[in-house]
Amino acid sequence: MTWMRMLCLGVGLSEDGVTAMGRRLDGETLGPWMRLVSDVDHEAVAPAAAVLDSGERIRPLDVVDVPVDDTATLMHQAENHIVAEDTPWQLVRRVGRSDVLDALDTRLWRRGESSGDGQHDRMTHLQTFFLDGSLRFVRPGTVDLEIQPPRGGEEPAVRAIFRLDGHRYNLEVIDAVTREQAQSCTVGTHRLDDPLLCISLSKLYEYNAEGYTYRQVTGLIR
Questions:
Q1: Coil, helix or strand for 191?
Q2: Is 2 helix (H, G, I), strand (E, B) or coil?
Q3: Do domains 2-100 and 104-221 have the same CATH topology?
Q4: What pLDDT does 208 receive?
Q5: Which residue(s) pair with 74 in the sheet?
Q6: What does the pLDDT read at residue 209?
Q7: pLDDT at 78
Q8: I want to staple 176 with a disulfide (CB 3.0 to 4.6 A). Which of 13, 132, 134, 164 is the partner?
Q9: CA pair distance 204, 74, nearest whole angstrom
Q10: CA angle, 115 as apex, 112 and 120 as ends, to 5°?
Q11: DSSP label of 101
């Protein structure tokens, strides 16, 4: 097991569990991306494992020391690191929004395809062969956060609509804080001025003979 320091930029919440991601820190220098995963199928960790030694759940803008057992490349997700789930993550400090601006990327990956719910929100398995990574941190300017009515007893779905590099995107939001806040928000569109977005390519989902990975907003820093 090795301890690594990470600047957290996104914490995604899904039916599989919690996935934290960010940039490795070497001293005060930004290093490569990291995505923290379980040793079970290299997917999300259990919610109880994503808790800091302070008792709080990890969140964007946390600088944390995490116990890493191994790397675990999963197809296009080359940034995956397996964490030791029986060892608490240690909070080093919390930083401000202005402290993470050096981590920004200028664009997403190629536009890709659109699902029935989104716009430029997915890519085929073949398209992922040519990517240089599965995580991005961007500043699109204005973002419209669309909170949709709950369906069948489920929590409200949340989508982020924005323009970046001349293209319009409509992506699913799985950022843990935003998903929780959406449960008490009014259904409809809420405009956000100048948020920072951490965007991840999901694991591969297979439909018929075609496989797709989805662009998901895993961090939303206001």
A1: strand
A2: strand
A3: yes
A4: 56
A5: 77
A6: 61
A7: 92
A8: 13
A9: 9
A10: 35
A11: G
Burial 88-99 (b: 16+ CB within 10 A, else e): bbebeeeeeeee
In 10 A of CB 109, how many CB atoms?
19
Q: List the structure tokens of 83.
A: 């964490």
- pLDDT tens for 198-220 read 999 998 887 656 789 999 999 99
CB-CB contact of 28 with 14 (8 Å): no
Is the overall model pTM greater than 0.85, yes or no?
A: yes
What tokens appear for 97 in the block?
């929004």
CA distances to 57, 58, 131, 170 from 68, rounded to whole Å, are 18, 16, 25, 34
Given a contact cutoff of 8 angstroms between Cβ atoms, the answer to whether 120 and 127 are in contact is no
Q: Of the CATH numbers 3.30.70, 2.40.50, 2.160.20, 3.30.1490, which one belongs to the domain with range 104-221?
A: 2.40.50
Quick one: pLDDT at residue 138?
Answer: 98
Q: In 28-176, at which residue ranges do the beta strands (DSSP E only) sit? A: 29-37, 62-71, 80-83, 90-94, 122-124, 135-138, 142-147, 158-164, 167-173
Residues with pLDDT less than 50, the chain:
none
